[in-house]
Amino acid sequence: MPHLPSLPERATLIDLFRLFPETSRPLIEFHEALQRGPSPFTEAERELIATHVSGLNRCRYCQAVHAATTELLGVSGAAVAGLGDPDHASVSEKMKLSALTASSP
Question: What pLDDT score was predicted for residue 70?
Answer without folding.
Answer: 94
